[in-house]
Each structure stands twice: as C-alpha cells, then as structure tokens.
Amino acid sequence: LVEDTSMEYVEKIFNVAKDIYSLCNEVKVNHKRCRRLKARIECLLKPVETIKNEELTVAKALKEMLGILENAKDFIESFTNKCRFAKVFKAYEIKEDFSHLNERLNDVALALGLALQTELASIFKGETRKREDKQDIEEDERDLDRVAKILEEALHSMEERIQQAVNDGMEEIKMDLKDIKRIIESYNEKPSVHPVQDIVELKSEDIEMQNKPFLETDNFKYYKGTLHKFPVAIKRFLNVGFSNVEEIRKIFRKEAETMKHFESPNIVRIYGICIDEKGKLLLGMKLMEEQKLKSCN
User: Which residues are in coiled coils (predicted)?
Assistant: First the structure.
C-alpha cells in the first residue's frame, strides 16, 4: 500500500476539521469543552498550512493528527443527536474522553515541531490546559445540573397532577356510589302495612297520582297513584251536584265508612277521602284488578 503524502494528509485534516467546526455549533450538551477542543484544533492547523515538503516524520505526525481529528469528530457528533440526549444523565462519565483527546492533541502539537512554537507552547502548556479544562468542566456541569433540575421539577409536577386527578376521580366514584346506594334504599323502602289503619281525610299533598286514568265510567275516573309511598287506586267522582263542601264531606265520609264496614277480600278496602279547595273529590282505595273496581261503581 502506498502511504499518503503530507499534502494529502493536510487536505484530509482540513476536511475533517471543517466538519468538527460545524458539529460544534450543533451540540446539545458539553458546549464549553467542545468549543475548547475546536479552538485547540484551529491552533494546530496554523502550522499545518506551512508544510510544503514530504518528510516522513512530518507525514507520520499528520497521519496521527488525522486519526485524532476523526475520533474527535465522532465524539462531538454524539452530542448533536437529540435521540441520545440521555447522555445528560451520564455526563460525568465522559470527562476522561475529553481529557484523552486533549492529551493526544498535545502529543501531536509537540511532534509537529513546526511554526508558531511559542503560541503552541502557550496554548498546550500543561498548567494552562488543566486550568482551562477545569473551568470548562465546571461550566458544563453547572449547565447539566440546571437541565437535570428542570427535568426533575417537570417530573415532580407531573406526578402531583396525576395524583390529584386520581384523588378527584376517587371522590367522584364515592359520591356516585352513595347516590346509587340511596336510590336502591329508596326502592327497598316499601311499607309492610297499609298506609292508614282507619278512614281519614287526606291532604292533597299526601296523594300522588298519574295524569292519565286507567279506567273511566260516566261518573268516575280511576288513577294509579301512591299514598305515603304505598300503591293505591284513586277514585275521582265526576258530575257532583253538591255546592256545600261540608255537606259533601259528610256524605262522602258516610259512604266510605259503609264500605269500610263491609271490608273483605272481595270488597275494596278504603283508606281515606280527599276534598281539595277546588271541590275535587277523591277516594283512596286498595289497588285491585279493574273488574273488581268496576263492581264498586
């Protein structure tokens, strides 16, 4: 295999360096250390421009430098990939990678032994390099701590919102269960005895009846309804010719008492009478089959 000439290495070095410069502008983390690495590469490229001959020792140094720059390019590129942003949680483990790259650049700078010796010696002087690297690490770590804190606060806030939503949901479920229990209990609250033990005069608010009668005759209408939640039949008298409410009440009660007196399984049981302010006459009785009710007309 034919070894590349010094000029061929120089061309490749500049191409890789150009890629590194571009990637340094795209990194998502470790900005300071990437920029410091870029600055040192720029300094190394100045003496490279002066190389005109093809001495083996120079070509060897350039070849080594090319390999370092390619490694640096791959390393910096890893910080531009958003999908690998999880590196923020492993940032402290990459100190040695930056340190290793800087050490290799330092070795190349010494090996070239070319122009700008004073500038190179100043830039890559051990104490200066370590101080700069320490400052870069501290600034990058502060930036990483800030990002990690923001992520932690966001996660904590999300957990609180989820817990609150769960608590609210549980309260709603408890209220719904109470409502269901109350409804079931109301359905189960069926009287075990008749609503009244004697004929009484009922108030209109004690009686609830359906709007539509289930049986009609010339003189009566029968409605299904409830008396104190007890199912009853309600008989409404039509075409009543009395104008005196007291007289109506007296006759009405007398007829109810007569029916009560002969009460048997085959005779309708009477619970009470109701005369409202409008003169509507109602009779509360046991809910029976229509045929039996007709026999009471």
Answer: 134-190
Quickly list H helices, 49-116: 56-77, 95-112
Structural domains of the chain, with CATH: 6-157 (no CATH), 200-294 (3.30.200.20)
Q: Which of 140, 139, 109, 136 is nearest to 125 (CA)?
A: 109
297-to-134, 227, 233 alpha-carbon distances in Å: 110, 21, 13
Tens of pLDDT, residue by residue over 200-239, are: 778 888 888 888 988 888 888 888 888 877 888 888 887 7
| pLDDT, tens digit (0-9, with 9 covering 90-100), for 5-39 | 667 888 888 899 899 888 888 887 788 888 888 88
The CA distance from 63 to 69, in Å, is 10
The continuous run of DSSP H or E covering 286 comes out as strand 281-286
**Rounded distance, CA 2 to CA 125, Å?**
36
Question: Nearest Cα to 107, choosing from 99, 115, 118, 97?
Answer: 99
For the chain, the straight-line distance linking the first and the last C-alpha, in angstroms and rounded, comes to 126
Reported as a single tens digit per residue, the pLDDT across 129-165 is 777 778 888 888 888 788 778 878 877 777 777 778 7
Tokens representing 140?
């990058």
Q: What is the CA radius of gyration of the chain?
A: 51
As to burial, measured by CB atoms within 10 angstroms (0-12 exposed, 13-18 middle, 19+ buried), residue 101 is buried
Would you say 40 and 97 are in contact if contact means Cβ atoms under 8 Å apart? no
140-145 long-range CB contacts below 8 Å, 24 or more apart?
140/29, 140/30, 140/31, 140/32, 140/33, 140/91, 141/91, 141/92, 143/29, 143/31, 143/32, 144/29, 144/88, 144/91
3-state secondary structure of 3: coil
Distance of CA 134 to the CA centre of its chain: 43
